[in-house]
Amino acid sequence: MKLQLALDLVNIPEGIALVKEVESYIDIVEIGTPIVINEGLHAVKAMKEAFPNLQVLADLKIMDAGGYEIMKAAEAGADLITVLGATNDSTIKGAVAEAKKQNKQVLVDMINVPNLEQRAREVDSLGVDYICVHTGYDLQAEGQSPFEDLQTIKAAVKNAKTAVAGGIKLETLPEVIKAQPDLVIVGGGITGQADKAKVAAEMQRLVQQG
Ligand SMILES: O=C(CO)[C@H](O)[C@H](O)COP(=O)(O)O
């Protein structure tokens, strides 16, 4: 099981400073969608250059032009790139084909997919690397969490690895780990804490003991 730190509400220098604090406790650093919107793929390039030993995920949430957008993220140095499960199969197939060519990985974000079980099975047959359940900020604010959805995809997905994101905190991490995802994605649960290194270290301990 791996731990991914999601950076969303920071600029490039703030993001690099933050990762320096927790570098040894995480496996993957995510350049979140708001950073890509604010700073472009330069943020991915800057993070990869600053931390060549970490994997960098570009949270592009690709909805169209799968092959092209994967190619651009790969050029910037991303190791993993996100595509939306809500898009059509052609976009996902194009993304997977380009990612394989570039030796990169595709994580499909199932945010707001209504027929989760059925779509997870379909996406699983397209050769993607990860299928991720995700409760976004707006639904987190309404009290929702991704924990039940994780059980759903754990039962449905046979080929891809599974991932979970959306409001995970140190207190809720043990419940998440019980469902045995391959990847746990944490943003505010680390970035919003006063002692980020302490929380990240404890999260790494829990994730590694599985
Ligand atoms: O992709 C995202 C928002 O769309 C976030 O990166 C993801 O939800 C993790 O952040 P948090 O743990 O703060 O919810």
From TrEMBL:
Pathway: One-carbon metabolism; formaldehyde assimilation via RuMP pathway; D-fructose 6-phosphate from D-ribulose 5-phosphate and formaldehyde: step 1/2. Gene3D superfamilies: Aldolase class I (3.20.20.70). SMART domains: OMPdecase. Keywords: Carbohydrate metabolism, Lyase, One-carbon metabolism. It comes from the Bacteria. GO terms for molecular function: hexulose-6-phosphate synthase activity. It holds the Pfam family OMPdecase. Residues 2-203 form the Orotidine 5'-phosphate decarboxylase domain. It is an enzyme of class 4 (lyase). The keyword Lyase applies. It catalyses: D-ribulose 5-phosphate + formaldehyde = D-arabino-hex-3-ulose 6-phosphate. InterPro entries: 3-hexulose-6-phosphate_synth, Aldolase_TIM, HPS/KGPDC, OMPdeCOase_dom, RibuloseP-bd_barrel. Its EC number is 4.1.2.43. Belongs to the HPS/KGPDC family. HPS subfamily. NCBIfam families: RuMP_HxlA (TIGR03128). This is 3-hexulose-6-phosphate synthase. The lineage of its organism: Bacteria, Bacillati, Bacillota, Bacilli, Bacillales.
